[in-house]
Design brief:
By secondary structure, the protein is mainly beta. Helices cover 8% and strands 45% of the residues. This is Transport-associated OB type 2 domain-containing protein.
């Protein structure tokens, strides 16, 4: 967990939070840089939308939608690794769903 989130949790007295990432902020593959995180998951649905493809992915019990602007060959049940910049994480208070900011602003 990035230190910015740890600090936020301490400020919020360890209340539950929701982390959100916009679908277009995901990048295919693993990026080995300290300002990026990655997740591994399984594709459960692919939507071809003309100029973009929406990839629905499961990571344990969580679900993600990744938007890519390229046509890729990916199918249901494929394993997939995606990366995202830590600054793209948006933080919400779980009970109120109030936006608390994003890591790029901490």
């Amino acid at each position: 967990i990035p230190p910015e989130i740890v600090n936020l949790l301490e400020k919020e007295q360890n209340q539950d939070i929701i982390l959100g990432i916009r679908p277009g902020d995901f990048l295919l593959g693993k990026i080995d840089k300290p300002e990026f995180a990655h997740i591994d998951g399984k594709v459960y649905f692919v939507e071809f939308m003309g100029d973009m493809t929406l990839i629905h992915m499961k990571v344990q019990q969580d679900r993600f939608i990744i938007a890519v602007l390229t046509e890729i060959r990916i199918e249901e049940n494929d394993n997939l690794t995606v990366s995202f910049p830590l600054q793209s994480i948006h933080v919400f208070h779980k009970q109120t769903e109030r936006a608390m900011g994003n890591l790029g602003k901490f």
